[in-house]
Amino acid sequence: MDRNHQSQGTTMNQSGVSRRGFLKVSAASLAAAGVAGRMYAAGSDTIRVGIIGCGGQGTRDLVSCVKSAPGVQIVALGDLFEDRLNESLAKLRKDVPEAVKVTPNTCFVGWDAPQKVVQTDVHMVLLTTPPCFRAMYLRAAIEAGKHVFMEKPAGVDPKQMRSIIATSELAAQKKLSIVAGTQRRHSKKYQEIIRRIHDGQIGEIVAAQAYWNGGDMLGYWKWWDKENRSDVEWQCRSWPWFTWTSGDHLVEQHVHNLDVINWALQGHPEQCLGMGGRAVRTLGNIYDHFAVEYEYPKGVRVASMCQQINNTTTSRIAERVVGTKGVADVDRGVIAGEKPFKYEGPDPDHYVQEFADLIASIRTATPINEGKQVAESTMNAIMGRMSAYTGRALKWDWAMTASKLDLTPPKYDWVEFPVEPVAVPGKTQLL
Ligand SMILES: NC(=O)c1ccc[n+]([C@@H]2O[C@H](COP(=O)([O-])OP(=O)(O)OC[C@H]3O[C@@H](n4cnc5c(N)ncnc54)[C@H](O)[C@@H]3O)[C@@H](O)[C@H]2O)c1
User: I want to staple 108 with a disulfide (CB 3.0 to 4.6 A). Which of 113, 251, 348, 358 is the partner?
Assistant: First the structure.
């Protein structure tokens, strides 16, 4: 057992949270926030919410969720690590104090925290762990009868995508909603441009481009020391930089843009070929740049590129769709060509709108199910990474149905799990 886990083991109460730590955070943050008045006096029925993965995005998602509709209460928190849970709780107490209804008995840490969260009386669970755990916890939440918000990407390998699709079918049978963190789908600007593309306003689609070229993300996520930590703890904490935890940045980040392309083209690619490598990155085992060409039905080719390299002038985060009668710069809300258009309407915060849409679906009993669509966009990205890592052109059908790639560690525990070498095209095996 590693140092961190041991210390948790000696200080946890039965719920898995240090009572002293919890009270300290609660008192300090309540004092900092002041006791706010009732913000949701006009609220309708209460929506009780729990979360699995109380990190940076999970905490921001909870705040967005509270802001999206009246009557949201945060009643259960779960995380692998006590320090991350307490950090999140402190921020929630500061940002949305009136919505925080957790007690020490509904804060859970450790490997069994997800199961404990879904067993509480929540209506809805946010799945905001690193991507490698998404399929497993989606299954747990849907089996327990909970509506789900799950962050993107949907996972890291084809096996997990098959699981997400099967679980999404179960959710449909159970009339449960699943909304994914591909928030562009909830943007009024994106919706209007995509509607016009589907309406034929740029003619027949002949090509598209998708980009996420940015910096190394070290100012955004922390790189944790290995010292005194088991391989699994260290890699789960530093998850963005390992392939088994994040899927690589093509999957973790560029999935947003690939999702928009699938949305515009109303389907997924049939095949791809990709390349990539590490020009400057020295930590973890992921690449720092990729270029992938996807081929969709009717020979439509999509050029996709992404990088995480500082000090370049190639920065671009965008989606562009080319038709026989015009070109749509989807991210800019602009169409040029025979029917020019510029979106100038309101575009409320998509991070809030996605929760407004989810909660409305729960309250009106009209489920939204984005499980399959986010699994497919994630599969675009996984397939591109597999092609780049191995140097092999790939077909969607093979990757989706026959690939045996399974990146999970031998055991979900504080075990040794040496870092896989960086993939080498032409040498790394295609599984
Ligand atoms: N939609 C967006 O724009 C957007 C933005 C940023 C991140 N994200 C996504 O959100 C997810 C989380 O990213 P983040 O930035 O919050 O990372 P983070 O490292 O800040 O948070 C991850 C949290 O999950 C916890 N965790 C790890 N393994 C766990 C497990 N097995 N069980 C329970 N908890 C576990 C960690 O301790 C941590 O608190 C990722 O999938 C990321 O791609 C989405």
Answer: 113
For residue 289, list its beta bridge partners. 277, 307
Ligand 1 near 62 CB (within 6 A): no
266-323 pLDDT, tens digit per residue, is 999 999 999 999 999 999 999 999 999 999 999 999 999 999 999 999 999 999 999 9
Whether residue 55 has its Cβ less than 6 Å from ligand 1: yes
pLDDT at residue 17 is higher than 90 = no
Q: What is the distance between the alpha carbons of residues 404 and 256, in angstroms, rounded to a whole number?
A: 25
Residue 246 Cα to ligand 1 middle (Å): 10
pLDDT in tens, 40-57: 323 458 999 999 999 999
- Ligand 1 mean position to 131 CA, how many Å? 7
Q: How remote is the CA of residue 55 from the centroid of ligand 1, in Å? A: 5
| Residue 79 Cβ contacting ligand 1 at under 6 Å | yes
**DSSP line for 13-27:** -TTSS-HHHHHHHHH
What's the pTM?
0.91
- 380-421 confidence digits (pLDDT tens): 999 999 999 999 999 999 999 999 999 999 899 999 999 999
- Alpha-carbon distance of 112 to 428, in angstroms, equals 34
The structural domains of the chain, ordered by start, are 3-184 (3.40.50.720), 188-346+371-401 (3.30.360.10)
Tokens of 384: 């591109």
Helices marked H in 238-304 — which ranges? 243-246, 249-252, 255-265
Determine if residue 142 is left, alpha or beta; phi over 0 gives left, psi from -120 to 50 gives alpha, anything else beta.
alpha
Among candidates 131, 136, 66, which has minimal Cα distance to 97?
Answer: 66
